[in-house]
Amino acid sequence: MRDVNSPLIPLVDAEIPERCDAARNRKLLLDAAADLVAERGVDAVTMEAVAAKAGVGKGTVFRRFGSRSGLMNALLDHTERELQHAFMFGPPPLGPDAPPLVRLIAFGRARLDMVTVQGDVLRAAEGSPEFRYSGPARAVSLRHIVTLLHDAGVDGDVDLLAVVLLAALEAGLVLHQIRALGISPERIADNWEDLAHRITRTGPGVP
């Protein structure tokens, strides 16, 4: 659980090398899906619409991604990998050269930035039980938080504390707070930082 410099955990659809033609087809489908998300919003994007946009049969999309949630996760793959690379190997405050609490706060703010920019796609991907709690991307983030809590000297059930911290960053909850409750992204980020301080027992106002 502690080796944050291990290779990135493979994300959706990235387990084996692809033939050149398969890689081209995958990119064609993901480009079509991204265009539809931008044009119509994620809730209007169906496997049929992606197939029509890409000029292929619907069966091709299902064979490639398995389900709509699988497609949404594939769309997120690139952004997730960039975030993973930043907190595993990048410069501070996300990267290894910063103190654990600083990295933890930076991670939360970076993920919240992803939600505000790509929230609907994140929400669609999280909506599948198959990916919401057992997906590789979530596993990497959870392991990272556990490692930072250990490095910060946190006592108690660190695994469950990490789950609590990550749950507060879930796209569905964050979008509900922003859209339905009118809470600003800045306030959500500040509150997550306060939660991180409380769990690590540091910062002003923390006993």
UniProtKB/TrEMBL annotation:
DNA-binding residues (ranges): 46-65
Protein's UniProt name: Helix-turn-helix domain-containing protein
Pfam families: TetR_N
Provenance organism: Rhodococcus parequi
Keywords, ordered alphabetically: DNA-binding
InterPro entries assigned to the protein according to its UniProt record, in alphabetical order: Homeodomain-like_sf, HTH-type_TetR-like_transc_reg, HTH_TetR
Source taxon at top rank: Bacteria
Domain HTH tetR-type: 23-83
